[in-house]
């Protein structure tokens, strides 16, 4: 029996080694196991070029230049202080997503640990594992059913305060206000817009990595949030003990909520902003979204809130949102740390498939029909990542984006005030001036 298990182990190790060798080997016979590419300057490596292509609005250029020059599957570089192998295409995504905790593990650059100093002095990896355990009960579709009405209610207040009776608005700050307000309401039971505003400023600074975390100051809105009593994610964290019967420390809870608020806030607001941009540029797409949303709106009684079934009917709108997520993916990719053999970080890149004609013909063309039927091939559409570390906020994001689209098109048509506004990706894509638009309210609003 022992011999059997030893053989099995040998077989496993050989297959691991061979699969890594296959992915990393150059085409030239006799070459080393390192993928082709260059690591650039000492210390900064190729980070500057990586960031610069983003600042110029074309983060995919960094990837595609190297895919053309070195290899369409994997190339070597040096990013954000780390030697890295960038995995490209559907095969690269599949390899990283399906080998989580077998060959690779999620990993963040050390700057993340500095911005999120953990109360318990553990690494961001351990913190993420804890977070991952907490989340499913809140963010799985069934649990989200009861969020839809609350989202609708907050969206109504948001549009009434920020959009209505204003000729011109700037979309990005408003979209941030919307997603932040929702997160405050759903995660820490804060609904009062004044309190939300007070919280928003330090969060925005924090998200940019400029200040340390303002969490444990008595009397701050965040602290008040911790005392909020509704059964939300906060009270769950307060009431749940781990397998050893230990309850989470207050600071630890604050850490987790902070992660949730930041992780979910900028990504979804970037997506909402690009939806407004593309709908302004594509009147036919706008018209089709408008038609779908008005059918839902007209079937509602006065004051009746949106519900789960309504959101299931928003199929075309979600295809539009997916096409926006393909073209302007809020996250560009993420790192993985190999568990065996290599001393190089691995990186998956959304653009290596999203903007690749092999997987999306005419990749620059906005075409929501790509998502009809069975949709894109597996591992090609990855705005939320994939495998065990796929974004746990995906369904939550879908709901908040659809509720946003519903209120937006139900109320307005709009036009961009800067027709060729530049896009900056730093690290999320946003229009350089925040997307100023001129609003034209519909007259037929109830
Ligand atoms: C359009 C909106 C969003 C996009 C595009 C997005 C994208 C992603 C991606 C690509 C990852 C995986 C990164 C990796 O491979 O390591 C991720 C992870 C994560 N997302 Fe999202 N996300 C969005 C919204 C949200 C929301 C609304 C929440 C919370 C309510 C959230 C919470 C998280 C968390 C906690 C993780 C880390 C999971 C882990 O480490 O296992 N995200 N997100």
From TrEMBL:
Belongs to the cytochrome P450 family. Keywords: Heme, Iron, Membrane, Metal-binding, Monooxygenase, Oxidoreductase, Transmembrane, Transmembrane helix. The keyword Transmembrane helix applies. The chain crosses the membrane at residues 6-24. InterPro entries: Cyt_P450, Cyt_P450_CS, Cyt_P450_E_grp-I, Cyt_P450_sf. Pfam families: p450. Signal peptide: none annotated. It is a single-pass membrane protein. It comes from the Eukaryota. Its cofactor is heme. CDD domains: CYP90-like. This is Beta-amyrin 28-oxidase. It is found in: Membrane. The lineage of its organism: Eukaryota, Viridiplantae, Streptophyta, Embryophyta, Tracheophyta.
């Amino acid at each position: 029996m022992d011999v059997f298990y030893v053989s099995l182990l040998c077989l496993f190790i050989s297959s691991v080694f061979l699969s890594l060798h296959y992915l990393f080997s150059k085409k030239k016979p006799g070459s080393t196991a390192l993928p082709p590419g260059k690591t650039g300057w000492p210390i900064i490596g190729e980070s500057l070029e990586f960031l610069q292509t983003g600042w110029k609005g074309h983060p995919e250029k960094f990837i595609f230049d190297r895919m053309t020059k070195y290899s369409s599957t994997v190339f070597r570089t040096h990013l954000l202080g780390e030697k890295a192998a960038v995995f490209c295409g559907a095969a690269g995504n599949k390899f990283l997503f399906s080998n989580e905790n077998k060959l690779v593990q999620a990993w963040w650059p050390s700057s993340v640990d500095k911005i999120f100093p953990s109360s318990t002095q553990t690494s961001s990896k351990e913190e993420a594992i804890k977070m991952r355990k907490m989340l499913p009960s809140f963010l799985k579709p069934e649990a989200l059913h009861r969020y839809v009405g609350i989202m609708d209610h907050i969206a109504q207040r948001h549009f009434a305060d920020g959009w209505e009776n204003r000729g011109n608005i700037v979309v990005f700050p408003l979209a941030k206000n919307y997603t932040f307000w929702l997160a405050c309401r759903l995660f820490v039971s804060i609904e009062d817009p004044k309190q939300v505003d007070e919280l928003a400023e330090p969060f925005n600074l924090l998200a940019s990595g400029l200040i340390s975390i303002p969490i444990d100051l008595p009397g701050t809105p965040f602290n008040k949030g911790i005392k909020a009593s509704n059964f939300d994610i906060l009270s769950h964290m307060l009431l749940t003990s781990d397998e050893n019967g230990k309850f989470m420390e207050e600071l630890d809870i604050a850490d987790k909520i902070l992660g949730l608020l930041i992780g979910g806030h900028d990504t979804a607001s970037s997506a909402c902003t690009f939806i407004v941009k593309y709908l302004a540029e594509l009147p036919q797409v706008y018209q089709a979204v408008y038609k779908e949303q008005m059918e839902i709106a007209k079937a509602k009684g006065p004051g009746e809130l949106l519900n789960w079934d309504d959101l299931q009917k928003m199929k075309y709108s979600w295809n539009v949102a997916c096409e926006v997520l393909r073209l302007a993916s809020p996250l560009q990719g993420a790192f993985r740390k190999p568990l065996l053999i290599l001393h190089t970080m691995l990186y998956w890149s959304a653009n290596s498939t999203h903007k690749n004609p092999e997987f999306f013909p005419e990749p620059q063309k906005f075409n929501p029909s790509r998502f009809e039927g069975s949709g894109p091939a597996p591992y090609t559409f990855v705005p939320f990542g994939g495998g065990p570390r796929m974004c746990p906020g995906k369904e939550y994001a879908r709901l908040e984006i659809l509720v946003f689209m519903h209120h937006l098109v139900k109320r307005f048509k709009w036009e961009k005030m800067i027709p060729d506004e530049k896009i900056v990706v730093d690290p999320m894509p946003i229009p350089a001036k925040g997307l100023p638009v001129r609003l034209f309210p519909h007259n037929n609003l109830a």
